[in-house]
Backbone:
């Protein structure tokens, strides 16, 4: 179990639940980062008394400068500030939990790994956009990359038997199917933002909630699994399981399947990443199987949910294609949340970027940033946004 925590994105859905876990197990909170939600950050400072904070939005950071002094906390600013937080030294047994949303989390993930720290990763976009860079850095600096995403935590837990792990045959990545499971393209034409923001089983930040409705989230998770567990995309099968009790499964050479189950509560995977390899009491409720009653399984509809088709195509093509679909998705989701494009437009943009951009196989961090920018520009031009 880790005794010190640097928490990036502390004001978000994963961030606040991570602080629940830190509170329960008395993990020392060394540093916190937020983007704009300074009010909540201040409450967190008063409770957890970190030595360092970062506010990544520069204007909000400047406005908070005096208050930070009064609170006796060192303030870093901007995205470089988040990287500095990730690189703080002088603490033993420390982990960086990255719960920033989007590609904005990538540099901080790399910074943490390069400073020799273990990383608990919620920010799946780090692996989707710069998977090769992240995994190369993990190997080079010999650090642990612990999944926070519930499916990947489940897979990680199912792979703990070191004797069986080498004979892994395939991963069964479960998906809730989101609020529009079973919808046809015609039905999706009229869905609203409010409907898309209503997830049947999980309460999450707005971006990942839309990703769950478009099935982009499952596409991002497929790419995340390929990098984390060093498997081929075709060895990851997506299984829609509406109840969100089985969080994923692995199948071994003998066709034996091991699953991890639990209530749909992110505190379980968050806590496992912080207490690993130990297991401890958790505030999440236990599953009542007699209430759940039915477990259902279905294939994902790749033809209707174009985002998932795009993610599958992108990881099969490799190189920077996953980064391109991620960038297009981030921009399209932003536009959808601003009521500038429709739900189906998200899929059009994400699938369209693949044939629009010619992506490199081998890449540097600068290439990732450039591809992300070009993908966003493509989306803006597609919808005539200035
Ligand atoms: P939220 O939107 O709830 O929170 C995002 C956090 O990141 C907030 O602290 C926010 O600060 C901060 N942030 C926003 N923009 C920036 C930026 N440009 N630079 C730095 N920090 C920024 O997201 P979630 O907690 O839902 O998701 C976080 C990550 O975890 C995502 O990658 C998501 O895919 C992943 N994840 C989430 C799950 C969930 O249940 N929520 C499940 C599995 C994975 P502020 O509040 O101040 O704006
Ligand atoms: Mg997930």
Residues:
């Amino acid at each position: 179990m880790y005794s010190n925590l640097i928490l990036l994105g502390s004001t978000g859905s994963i961030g606040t639940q991570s602080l629940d876990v830190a509170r329960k197990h008395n993990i020392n909170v060394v540093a916190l980062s937020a983007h704009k939600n300074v009010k909540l950050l201040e409450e967190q400072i008063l409770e957890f008394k970190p030595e360092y904070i970062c506010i990544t939005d520069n204007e909000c950071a400047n406005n908070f400068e005096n208050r930070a002094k009064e609170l006796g906390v060192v303030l870093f600013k901007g995205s470089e500030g988040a990287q500095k937080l990730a690189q703080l030294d002088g603490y033993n047994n420390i982990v960086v939990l990255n719960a920033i949303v989007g590609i904005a989390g990538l540099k901080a993930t790399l910074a943490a790994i390069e400073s020799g720290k273990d990383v608990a990763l919620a920010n799946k976009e780090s692996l989707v956009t710069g998977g090769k860079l992240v995994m190369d850095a993990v190997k080079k600096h010999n650090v642990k990359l612990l999944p926070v995403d519930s499916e990947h935590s489940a897979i990680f837990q199912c792979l703990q038997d070191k004797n069986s792990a080498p004979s892994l045959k395939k991963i069964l990545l479960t998906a809730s199917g989101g609020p529009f499971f079973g919808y046809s393209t015609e039905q999706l034409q009229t869905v609203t933002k409010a409907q898309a923001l209503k997830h049947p089983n999980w309460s999450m930040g707005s971006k990942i909630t839309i990703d769950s409705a478009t099935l982009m989230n499952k596409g991002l998770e497929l790419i995340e699994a390929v990098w984390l567990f060093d498997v081929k995309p075709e060895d990851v099968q997506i299984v829609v399981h509406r109840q969100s009790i089985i969080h994923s499964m692995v199948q071994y050479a003998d066709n034996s399947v091991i699953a991890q189950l639990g209530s749909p509560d992110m505190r379980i995977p968050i806590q496992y990443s912080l207490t690993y390899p130990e297991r401890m009491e958790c505030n999440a409720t236990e599953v009542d199987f007699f209430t759940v009653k039915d477990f259902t399984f279905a294939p994902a509809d790749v033809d209707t949910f174009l985002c998932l088709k795009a993610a599958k195509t992108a990881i099969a093509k490799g190189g920077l294609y996953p980064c391109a679909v991620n960038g297009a998705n981030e921009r399209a989701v932003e536009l959808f949340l601003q009521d500038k494009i429709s739900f189906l437009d998200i899929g059009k943009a994400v699938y369209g970027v693949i044939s629009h951009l010619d992506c490199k196989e081998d890449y540097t961090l600068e290439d990732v940033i450039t591809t992300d920018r070009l993908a966003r520009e493509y989306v803006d031009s597609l919808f005539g946004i200035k």
Notes: The pocket of NDP (ligand 1) is lined by residues 9-15, 34-37, 56, 79, 82, 99-101, 104, 122-125, 149, 202, 204-205, 207-208, 266 (CB under 6 Å).
